[in-house]
Amino acid sequence: MEWEAVSVGLLSVLPPVVAIVLALITKEVVFSLVLGILSGTVIYSFAHGDGFVGVFDTTTTLMGDKLAENTSMILFLCLLGILVALVNKAGGSKAYGEWAVKRLKSKRSASVATCVLGVLIFIDDYFNCLTVGTVMRPVTDRFNMSREKLSYLIDATAAPVCIIAPISSWAASIMSYYPESSGMNGMTAFLKSIPMNLYAILTLVMIFYIAIKKNADYGPMYKAEALAAKGINEGREEIEDMEEEFLRQTTGNKGKIMDLVIPICALIVLCVLTMLYVGGYWSGEGMSLFDAFGNTDAGTALALGAFCALIFAFIYFMIRRVLTFKDFFECIGPGVKSMVPACIILTLAWTISGVCRDLLGTGPYVAHLVEVSGVPVQILPALIFIVACLLSFSTGTAWGTFGILIPIIISICEIAAPELLITTLSATLAGSVFGDHSSPISDTTILASTGAQCNHLKHVGTQVPYAATVAICCLIGYVIAGLTGGLGFGISTVITLGISLVLLFIALNILPKMFGENRYHVNEKTAEAE
Q1: pTM summary value
Q2: pLDDT digit string (tens) for 405-428?
Q3: CA-to-CA distance for 516 and 57, rounded, in angstroms?
Q4: What's the Cα-to-Cα distance from 220 to each of 130, 146, 216, 447, rounded to whole Å?
Q5: Helical (H) or strand (E) element with 392
Q6: How large is the angle between the packed helices 198-212 and 107-120, nearest 10 degrees?
Q7: How many Å apart are CA 393 and CA 436, to the nearest integer?
Q8: Pairing mode, strands 527-529 and 520-522
């Protein structure tokens, strides 16, 4: 259904504000999202003159539309849940955990291994979150790493990696937003923006630093890690209750490491091939590899890839004789059920994003305020970064933020500051990733919690201080980038990136002393601020 957005001014930002504030207060994500959606549909219905009569129809129709648009992604999640259940039932996860414990001798090595695996799986953030969580969760549990820490490492290697990988669903989305009339094609602009995408680069530097250095945690994450070291992993309690049947699946004793590695590798390879197939790479039209990735439908391709991987797993496990025919089909129900909480929250998150974009025009309203503000062009990168952060955090979507801001910043920079075009584009992408990385209603954030089987709001609460640390360093960096833009993009990039990294390392050495061991006292049952 085609929706016609209404102009309601400041009221357009009310739904995401309601959802976020209630989520942080009540700790109930579904309740908060539903009220956020209802607040938006009430505003829309009254603006149309339908009153309360139109609220139900608008809400159900919009939710149905968003679910229909993302059916392939729901199918992918369910198929992936079944594949995970199969690997678990066959004993692959157990065998990998036993192997990894022998090879990985410490929490540090397990953390680094998680980061490396996250960087290697760069095709799609959804795929990244669920795969890395599935593979590394048994290993990190052995070393008493908190589920909150695992969720953060997963989340920080999802969107931040995908947005600087030329072959990814994210890159394809960004390129599609870049207008041909700008004099530069989308691939060229994307590649040039990578060195100045400060949030993605600094986030990756930060996770490896935290993974390697001892006593580098601070804030709520320090509390979670201190409790987990004592065997109290608060982040996993609620998710275990929701997925009790799935987690109690009997694991086979015949499983080997290859029973985990081969199905996962098959899934990766098949998803890459299906992305190329859906993108038309073998259509005979002479389409290049990059064009095929740019033309693909990520949701459809991933669902098709997961289905093919499931067929492969069926044949493989039958040949290996680690599962019987009955065992295979017994995994379908628990596998799908394990993904039901994520599917519910994702559906609500897509719906509230639709309320903001399709019904109330939240993005264009915020973007218009920037466009008419008449601010000096030197602070444009920093200002766009702030707007992108707020917009993506409030709507829970980076891709929607790209579509709103990229055309605007191109039109502004081409006239007012051509030398800052790529820098401002990079700031848009960086700010969008911050919101997608840290928002409670972001689908990537939700899937990172799901992949780690961590309580969602505990993941958000422990991650936000880390994301904010990087964002502040980035903001200062973009101020410097605006001031040095006249020196040329190359020189400006070196200066900006260098100073931003120095600021990050200073922060990572100061904050653990201020908000780490000296700030929290942890006993056997709880952790309280002194």
Answers
A1: 0.70
A2: 776 777 677 766 778 888 988 999
A3: 50
A4: 24, 11, 12, 20
A5: helix 380-395
A6: 150
A7: 6
A8: antiparallel
